[in-house]
Amino acid sequence: MNSVRWLGWPATLLVVVLAAVASAADGPQGFKHRGFYLHEGWLYKHPFAVRSWSQDDFANMYQLLSRLGFDRVMNWPMFESMPAPLSEADAKALVDYRRTIDDAHAAGLEFWLVQTPNLTPPQSIAAKPWKERNPYPVWKHVRLDDPAEAAAYFAHRRAMMKIVNSADAYVTIDGDPGGYPGARPEEWLSVFLADRAAIDAHGTAPTKQRVIPWVWCGWGTDSVWGGNANHPPERIMPFVKASLEKLGPGMPEPWGLLPNLYFFARGAADLSYLDTPDEKVLGDLADLLGGPRDLLVPAWRCMALPLEGLPADLPVRLRKAALFGEAGRFIPGGQRRYLNILAAEVESRRGFLEAIAKPVDSSAAATNLAAATRALVGWWQVHGYVNAGDENTPFSWQFVRGEHVNALRAWAQANVEDREAVIAAAAKSLAASGTLGEEEAVQRLTEVAPGA
């Protein structure tokens, strides 16, 4: 598998989408349908965070996906951030969200709506507007083995689906493991039966609208294995088998099945293109966007290139460039913002590599440690990824590429002798530049510099 297929979010805004795209050249028949998943859960800065997009951003993304050869899009809008009973403001937000589905249809895409099976937040979360809520710290697992609790939850779920009733499919992600002791597959099946009933009663085309289970690790798994679903197959399979056995005889039509790798980058319409070298894939992508290959290709590959592969003037040239292809018009956030983001990523990579490029004496160790950290924190400040955190989550090394953190540790191990003095001086430098507060900088640098 070519490494470019694995370039990860948020390496660039669209590289996950774009690097997996195949050409339209004739070749072996590929997959009949090609879909892409827009995950609105994690918090980044705009335009990295799908949850931060405006309706125009979504509409542009759908047009872009259509031009890239996709015919389906799957959105997780996090309706799980809406507590019961549905407020007037949340009901209006759902009405507005229907327009997002309309925009997908207008671009020629099927729209698959994602929900989780049994998560709900407390009323206190509604103090913020829907798109600004962070439900991860406060979510509750609804016990579907409690008839009263299940009935109230399904009524709330039905109320939301009654409004957002025009999706082509309703997907239940992480449709297992349940999250409470004794969770049984019968309860998992009840989610899909309730969704089927809601669609049949309120859907715009119920005979065509499907329910789709996303099979993960088997209903009840985390209850048995202590909340950690990363288990060997021999432990997971009994739970998966028990869950799947309930679907065949229990699910009314129409329905389908979505394994958790379904949307891996197999959007290639021509299977022979899967063996195309990375350089050509990215060159073809540059041509599609109507941008200069000599700038875009090294920018997209910057996190894998050495310092000598990244010209010093590349960021400046990126900021002056333009995308003249039709597809380039539909990048969420706009092509100018996208090129600026690429330039910032290249600057971060170059700054980091320059700082750790060679051994230094003790007098320069603090300067280089601060420069390397400044480069990494600077890129994080551009994209703002905090996983399940919120906008107040401070910088952490877990938000940085692991290979960069490891490289910085190795450099510090070899070059930092007077640990306390170097950390103190580097922290003052980072505070003076506004990168991190001095106390915070000391804490973060202590985590990557070696002990005595």
SSE order and pairing:
Layout: H1 15-18, E1 35-39, H2 55-67, E2 72-76, H3 88-106, E3 110-115, E4 119-120, E5 140-141, H4 147-163, E6 169-172, H5 185-202, E7 210-215, H6 221-224, H7 233-250, E8 258-259, H8 278-289, H9 293-300, H10 314-320, H11 335-355, H12 362-383, H13 402-415, H14 419-432, H15 438-448
Parallel strand pairs: 1-2, 2-3, 3-6, 6-7, 7-8
Antiparallel strand pairs: 4-5
The SS-based structural class is alpha/beta
Specify the biggest β-sheet. 6 strands, parallel
For the CA atoms, what is the radius of gyration?
Answer: 24 Å
Low-confidence region ranges? 1-27, 260-268
Helix content estimate: 40-55%
Task: Summarize the helix and strand pattern as letters.
Answer: HEHEHEEEHEHEHHEHHHHHHHH
Form type: globular
Query: Kindly state the mean pLDDT as a whole number?
Result: 85
What's the number of helices? 15
Structure summary, number of beta strands:
8
Strand order of the biggest β-sheet: 1-2-3-6-7-8
* First-to-last CA distance: 42 Å
Question: What is the subunit arrangement here?
Answer: single chain
What amount of the residues lies in strands?
A: 5-15%
Please tell me about this protein's structure.
By secondary structure, this protein is an alpha/beta fold. Strands 1-2-3-6-7-8 form a six-stranded parallel beta sheet. It is built from 15 helices and eight strands. The chain is globular and about 70 Å long.
